[in-house]
Each structure stands twice: as structure tokens, then as C-alpha cells.
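Q: Convert this sequence to C-alpha cells.
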Amino acid sequence: MRASDPGGPSAARSAPETGYGSHPAPVPDASVLRAARDAAARALDEDLAGYGDLAGRVFTGAGRATIVGREDGVLSGTVPFLAAAELLDPDLDVVFDRVDGERFPAGTPLGTVRGRLAGILALERTGLNFLGRLSGVATLTVAFVAAAAGTQARVAATRKTTPGLRALEKAAVEHGGGLPHRFGLFDSAMIKDNHIAAAGGLTAAVARVRERLGHAHLLEVETTSLEQVDEALACGVPVIMLDNADLDLVRAAVERIAGRAIVEVSGGITLGRVRPLAEAGVDIISAGALVTRARWIDVALDMD
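A:
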């Protein structure tokens, strides 16, 4: 399996201008590669179920197909596509002409698949499902990032991801120029409304978490009012999130915090809200919508 150069899917390569500044195509790390293989194996199992492709398996000989983007988009999902091809038929030769994170206009050939006809036909839907879904996340992320351009705000994902696809969807956010944010509950401590309720108050919740928190772990607290912002500041919390806050509250909180903590906004973030929130002076805009509201990009596999 090959990406767009002899280095394969793990080779670093610079992507062209994306509209908000050039960036290198992220190199898949071990967790993304592992997630791609696991997701590809599950996807192939549900499509083939041990029986194989009842129609495609009757075709013998070799063939060639072109992967085509049928609408404008930002590419993501080449790693699980390659993983699915490798699992299905190691002799398939997949070459992507574009890298993850690269924009493409409608009608663009994105790559080719060569090899046994039966393998190409069986790969088609599983491979395209990854490309369509993940390119949709990357494409929407580009729009969110563009809306915050020229401000200090950065756009980030949340933990609202498709079960089992988190690593791939967060990688797609990165391909669109966004931040992955925390991957899970284990890599930073975020005190939310239910933690505060369980502890009997924000200050008590911070104290209980800090008692067990490692020195290198980040602490963040979710707030919904200026009173809670003040309480979080009094606790010396380094990151304060404003959850489902209207613009007036965000502006007042940014002024109140005055650089003493990183300010994040989350909850109900739509594309139309990004620019006003960014101009209010926040540091991070985290949006579950990058994944939950992303529509699929139409990608096809056409036999040559």
C-alpha cells in the first residue's frame, strides 16, 4: 500500500495552502494507525461477514479504478482506506495523489487502486465510507477555522465523537486545521457541572480533584456564570470554560479573567457564532459540531 510517495502512509509531506495558512500533513502516529486498522477490520467484517462479496467475487483478472472527489472538500481518511485495502487484499496497489489536509475541487482524481478486480470491488464501499465521513469532518473544520482567522482564538474538537472512531475523527479535525483537544478522560482533568454537583460546589470539586491530580496534568473547570468564574479564579484554575454562554457573558468573563487563565467556550457552537466569540477575546472555541454536524463529502471509486 502506498500513499502519494514511496514513504507510504507514515511519510511526512507538506500540504498546499489551505486558506488559513499552510501546514504539513500530520504524520499518522501509532494510535491513529492502530485505530485505522481496528476500524477497517470492523468495517470489513460487517460488510463481508465471513461470506465475502457475492457479486464481486465472480470477476477474475486485474483492473484499475480511480478515486474521485465529486464535490469540493478537504481530504481525510487515507490511512483507514489503506488499512482496509491491506486487510482485504495485500496485493492491491493503492496510490493517493493528494495528502490528508489538502483541498480538492469537484471532479478531482484523488488516487488510484490497481489489482484484482474482486478486491477492488469488495474494497469500494468500506474505503469510500472512511473517505466520505472523515473528509466531511476536515472540510467543516476548515470553515470553522477560517471564521476565527485573524484572532487569537483556536478551534478545537471535543469528546463528542463516533464510538470507536475518535482517533480518526480527531485526526480529521487536525487535517482541517483544528486542535484535537483532550483525547479522553485520562489526559487532562475537566471538572464539569456533574462533578460540581457531586462535590457540593466548585471549590470543593477543585480541591478533591487536585488532591489526586498529577503535577503534569492540566486542570480545567466548566462554568456557567460570572460567580463561578470568580470562584474558579480564586482557586487558581489555569483553564476556565464557559459552557453554553451567550455573547454578553463571554465578553464579561474575558474582561473579568483578564489573562489570568486560558478562556475556552463550548456548548452550542455553530459556524455563525465562531466569529463573534473569537472577537470577544477567547482563546479556545471547542465545538462538538465539527464531528456531529459534519456532512459526508461525495467521493467515488470509478473503474477505468
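The chain has a mean pLDDT of 91.
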